[in-house]
Amino acid sequence: MWFRKIVMRKTQFFIIMLLTMMAAMILTACVSFTLETQRFVESYYSADNCPMAFTVSAREDCEELIENDEVASSVITKMQKRNAKYLTDAFYCEGEKIPNEGSFAYAIEDIDKVDYAISVMDGEEKKAPEDGEVWITNICAKAYDMKVGDSFKIGTGKTYKISAIVNSAICSSGFIDNYPYYFNDRTLEEIDGTDGYALDLYVDDTDISLKEFQEILPDEFTAAKMFMIDRATLKMCLSILTGIFGGVGVVAALIILAVSVIVFRYLVRATIAKEYQMIGIYKALGRDNDEIKKIYLSAYMVSGVIGMIPGMFLARPLADYLGKVVLGGNKAFVLTEYTTFIGMAAVVFICVVLWLNVSGELKKIRTISPIQAMNLQMLSSEEKLSKSLIPSAASSVSMAINGMWKRKGMSLLIIMILTVSVYIDVMAGEVALTLANYAEDRTIWENLPEYDCMIKTMGNEDALSYIQNSDDVVDYVQLELDPECSGMEIEGTEWSSEEAHPMIYDNFTEERYETVPFTKGRICLERHEIAASEQFLSEVDKKVGDYIKVSNGDKQIRCLIVGSYSAMMKGGASFYLLDEDFEELGYHVDYQTILVFLKDGIDYDTFAAEFEKAVPGSLMFTDFNFVEREGDTVGEIANPICVVLFAAFAAFSILNIVNLIHTQIKENRRKYGIQKAMGFTTGYIIRESLVSLTIQYAIAMIITVILNEILSPILFSLACGVFYIRKPFWLPATVGGVTYVVLMLIALVMLQSIRKIKPVELMEE
User: Long-range contacts: 233-238, Cβ < 8 Å, 24+?
Assistant: First the structure.
């Protein structure tokens, strides 16, 4: 009997299969993508596969310094040492200059003997670079469009061949502001640079914090440290976008599921109304409520499960694609049996949700009696007796308004589905657009003023003197974004110096901070004031107007919190201090960065050429290189993921539109027959339906605009920590316009079936 129901309403049940397939596919793919990538990151940076910290020391005896220290040697259980060099000369690839603010080159003789993951992604797979060859990281290659076979030159030295592009655990994300370059020992010796010694440090205690680890390092080792990055930071940088897009995807999948459930409930309700008499006949023939309920429940559940199973299998390649995108194409990433378990769990979850909602709606069968069913034609429904909103309506517009008024429930359902369909597509587009313009929106991500150019002085005092005396410069600000602050303690946290993230500046005027997007208050302008990110304030449980203590040993200052801002850089937790306060804590300020504000009409290229000629030891950029690289990384990951989600949402929207129009036509067959018997033409009936859909769509667009204005920045801040999202007018207008055209085209095609309806059918049904 249930199979006959499916055959009789095959179009409706086919759409149900597609909807459940979409819900199962997107939910499984997003959950699997999130959990599988997190599992991979945990394995990739596990204590067995990765050091606790990667370091480069200026001292050749760095290994002995730790071995001879009683505390350090008791905690650090393994070390691996290799030659390295610090390179400050400019890089050139195929003659094009690549900015270099200081990078490290590492020696490799056998890739299998390196104690962390390095895998060849493109190029010949071999044990190590040969003489005159260099291996570059995949992140670096994508950032500067470098390919296998290209020439690579360092300063005025020799030219080397890029023989492989690799994924490296020491730099698996564009959020790491340091790209390693790999040579063999012989080639490394001939390169100009500062000699260093890479020392990878292992610990068995996986619970040791970064702060505790830093405290056990010998003072001599710390003083000679040229570079250090810890495993926890690498894990965070590799997985940060996984959490963002995985969360967005799962929420979107749950929205799709929620809307699908509402649609299912409506379909069940419409089916009961359509087959009211048939249900009464079933009861008259002796079938009880549970038997009748089982017929309909079986039809819906079988259709849903048939749709979910292919959705579960289609989720696997989608999850694999998303995982490889967010992990930078790392070949080591493969899906495991977890994806199968997740798919099965998603199917069970959706089945339970579907069963609860369908069976809940089918409870209305109990209220139907055979007598009511037989007398259905003589009964007057609430809809039939309700007053028209526009009396004596004649035009298709007024008739459409009256129809919507009488069937408020259906109209609200259509408006809700159209709103969700348009909004999630608009939201996906805005997320992609926001992240694609990551570098352009630097004041948002950096929390710095809108400057014209940035200068890395590299310790050259002539750079500051030139800027101070230049007639082309209207103002400047000196910054120290990564000051040495070991021993710093902040009230309310257990942060290490690597986690504190102060930003030190001077000459930061009130006029300049106006371009910094503060959520509340202002930048600190007086002694013992602090401005902090919202994540920082959340961590220390403070708010603007409170006081907070910052200390270093026996030195302590009590600062008034005067402003807050949203941030993603530095893990979201950062704060501003005046240089005088930083020095009062016993730290030394070594400014390496100058933000320059040029006078109106000054050409940047001319100014840059004159500056570099006068001060050859400094580097000038229009932006922070790491922001550009982070922007490239975010865009490369965000764009394909947003395209996939956008396509999935669009397909879901079209399915819902088709389903709604199909259901309306089926429900209104009697109405259309009556209208034709009264002399209304097919064209009139189609116009009425199109007008009704247009009005409902217009209301949905108004709600979408309101949601977009209020909800989108909140959702984006939950994912990225920044209360901001690009909301250009043209995006919702374009999505809304395209969706409306699709809606009208689908409606026009499907409404052509009205031409086949004859008044005599009214008597036959």
Answer: 233/498, 234/45, 234/50, 234/169, 234/170, 234/172, 234/173, 234/176, 235/41, 235/42, 235/45, 236/571, 237/172, 237/173, 237/175, 237/176, 238/41, 238/44, 238/45, 238/172, 238/173, 238/327
